[in-house]
Amino acid sequence: MKKNGDNVNLNEGHLMLQDLAREFADRELIPNAEDWDRNGTFPAEAIQKARDLGILNCTIPEKYGGMGLSFMDEVIINEELGRGDPGFATITGVTMLACHPVVYAGTEEQKNEFLGRICDGQISAYCVTEPGAGSDVKAIQTTAKLEDDHYRINGSKMWIGGAGYADWFYVLARTGGSDPIKSLSGFIVDSDTPGVIIGKKEDKMGQRCSDTRSVVFNDVVIPKSNLLGGQEGGGWMQAMVAFDRSRPMLASHAVGNARGAMEEAWGYANQRQAFSKPIIEHQSISFMLADMATKIEAARLLVHKSASKLDLGERATLESAHAKRFAADIGMEVATDAVQIFGGYGYSEEFPAARRMRGAKIYQIFGGTSQIQRMIITREIQKSRGETK
Questions:
Q1: Please, which contacts does 322-325 make with residues 24 or more away whose CB atoms are closer than 8 Å?
Q2: Cα-Cα-Cα-Cα dihedral of 229, 235, 241, 245, to 10°?
Q3: Distance in Å from the first CA to the final CA of the chain
């Protein structure tokens, strides 16, 4: 099919990265995605190959060992990874999610050490969600108490992507005080620290190669130097900035998975015969495919807009919420329609449509549900209208 950048004014550098990521997805992801999903295989070898190509953790600045690429570069690459396999895209994306608070708020020493370790091949995970605090970050109960020159962390996190393979965690915890926002602080915790307990791998509906577990912190002692930014009270903003900067990437995964589902359905519709002609020649099917294509184009434009605003150094809370909400929702719609076009084969795990649909659902949930994105959109528009109380 036509290159996706042809009609959105991408430059030559963008198109080169797109080709590189697309070729990688065609060669390493699509042929293996079904096996990874069926067996819950963590694709360590493919992750290393992607890292060697320079298409992972690409927005880490060059001074800390990263590629120093733009957010637009990141979403272009990640659409291709999502098209290859959304589970793989999620695995690689969670490391960057944990790195965003460090890039935003870390001291030079913290950036050099922990971002440098990522660029040397380590994996990190973002420990924010708890059993009673998912969308409501202000409800977090994990505590971090200062004792002389160290902090003692206690609490439980859940649905942590990459937890079983992470070398270090970004952990959001309470450091005292009654204010639900100002009492939140961010910490970096090595996964092999005594008292860190990694739970069993979750048996998920989709994206089964993506490792998701609970993490318990039982009297975990870390040095005071692992308080992110060196000051208490910055955790809320660190987490919110991480969400704003990661949502375009998650949205690009959803767009890529939707595009993969559409391309597979399009190919099948040209081959499958009904009433003496390919089913794509029946209006009922051709209109479904046309709607799928339009939704994907619209979602991609929202993703690119949010990435472009981040590249300008501007706050992109509204744009990121628009992109995440719309891409997640149309991703589910497109994947479901692809199953319909495949008919009975779409309901079979022998064909990719079912895996695509199972993989699409989580985008409406993690990184802030579609309902939470709508709340953010309403709040941001109210603020812009001067109507927030």
A1: 322/373, 322/377, 323/247, 323/248, 323/251, 323/299, 324/247, 324/248, 324/250, 324/251, 324/363, 324/367, 324/368, 324/370, 324/373, 325/370, 325/373, 325/374, 325/377
A2: 80
A3: 49
**pLDDT per position as a tens digit, 51-88:** 999 999 999 999 999 999 999 999 999 999 999 999 99
Last residue of one domain, picked from the residues 60, 94, 119:
119
Kindly report the CATH number assigned to the domain that includes residue 166.
2.40.110.10
For 310-348, how does the pLDDT look when each residue is reduced to its tens digit (9 = 90+)? 999 999 999 999 999 999 999 999 999 999 999 999 999
Please provide residue 130's backbone torsions phi and psi, each rounded to the nearest 5 degrees: -125, 170
Answer whether residue 5 is part of any domain.
no
What's the DSSP call for residue 195? T
Q: Which two tokens stand for residue 128?
A: 């924010």
Burial tier of 22 (Cβ tally within 10 Å: 0-12, 13-18, 19+): buried
| Gap between the Cα atoms of 120 and 36, Å rounded | 25
pLDDT at 237: 97
Contact 89, 45 (CB under 8 A): no
pLDDT digits (tens, 9 = 90+) for 39-51: 999 999 999 999 9
- 191, 214, 233 - which closes a domain: 233
CATH number of the domain within which 259 lies: 1.20.140.10
CATH number, domain of 32, equals: 1.10.540.10
Give yes or no: residues 249 and 361 share one domain.
yes
What range defines the domain where residue 305 resides?
A: 237-384
